Structures are given as structure tokens and as C-alpha cells.
Amino acid sequence: MAYWLFKSEPNKFSWEMLVAKGAAGEEWDGVRNYLARNNMREMKVGDRGFFYHSNIGKEIVGIAEVCAEAHHDSTTEDPRWDCVDIRAVTPLARPVTLAEVKADPRLTEMSLVTSMRLSVQPVTAEEWRIVCALGGVEP
Predict the structure, then answer these.
(1) How many separate domains does the chain show?
(2) Residues 75, 67 contacting (CB under 8 angstroms)
(3) Model pLDDT for residues 55-79, shown as the tens digit of each residue
(4) Which CATH number belongs to the domain containing residue 75 in this structure?
């Protein structure tokens, strides 16, 4: 299993909105960055990802799961853009803020710190374990 982080502005698409989609999940559409798209092309069904509220809140609030591998993004006619589908798995018992991640010396190399603008990021197994512990959930 691989681990990821999905960023979303909560006023556009929030954790609560993903939860409301249920088991069917939601297409993670609208990504127009080649590196983020390539990250999605690497994903497999069952991979897990942190759901991060960007701009408002700036915190990891839940864990999502990839429920459909990379396919054409239905929001564009441009064949270059793909997306995956994700569904909510569990909220974090306690959201983990960007400030906490940046302050933790074990997370200095995490993409959330080093590539802050990237909307879909890889997360290492060790980073996953640490953030899950900070958020009060089992890895």
C-alpha cells in the first residue's frame, strides 16, 4: 500500500462533503499540475491518503482511500488530465495542523512542508505513522 495526501479548499470541497458521498466516493477532479497528475497515475485501489483542508484551516482532517484508479478527468476534454476516485475512511480524532507538521523535526522532509503548493502528494510510511499518531488514529 502507498500513502498520499489530497489537498482541498474546504469551502469548495470539504471532508464533510467527501463523507456525504459514501462508499461510491468522488472523482478527485480538476488537478492541472503534471506532478500531481503523475502521482494519481501511480495510485492503486486501496491506497490511503490524508485529506488536508488548505487555505482555510490548514490541517489534516481525515483519511481517504483510493476506490478507482487513474482515469480521464470528466471535467475536461483535454486528454492529458487524469484523476482517481477517493472515498472517506475515517476522520482523525484530532486534526493535525500545518504548524504542527512543520514544527515536528521528524516531518521536515514531508512533501506538505517541502512542496506546499502540490495538491496531490506522496507520503512515506514513516510520515503516515507519525501523522496518524498525532491525529489519534491507528496507522
Answers:
(1) 1
(2) no
(3) 999 999 999 999 999 999 999 999 9
(4) 3.10.590.10
Ramachandran area for residue 78 (φ above 0: left; ψ -120 to 50: alpha; else beta): beta
Tell how many helices (H) and how many strands (E) occur in the chain: 5, 6
| Assessment of whether the complete model's pTM goes beyond 0.90 | yes
Instruction: Give the chain's end-to-end CA distance (angstroms, integer).
Output: 12
The C-alpha atoms of residue 3 and residue 66 are separated, in whole angstroms, by 10
Residue 29: closest CA among 87, 88, 89, 84: 84
Is 98:59 a contact under the CB 8 Å cutoff?
yes
* Contacts (Cβ under 8 Å, ≥6 apart) of 103: none
Which domain, by its residues, includes 39? 3-135
Phi, psi (5° rounding) for residue 37? Answer: -60, -45
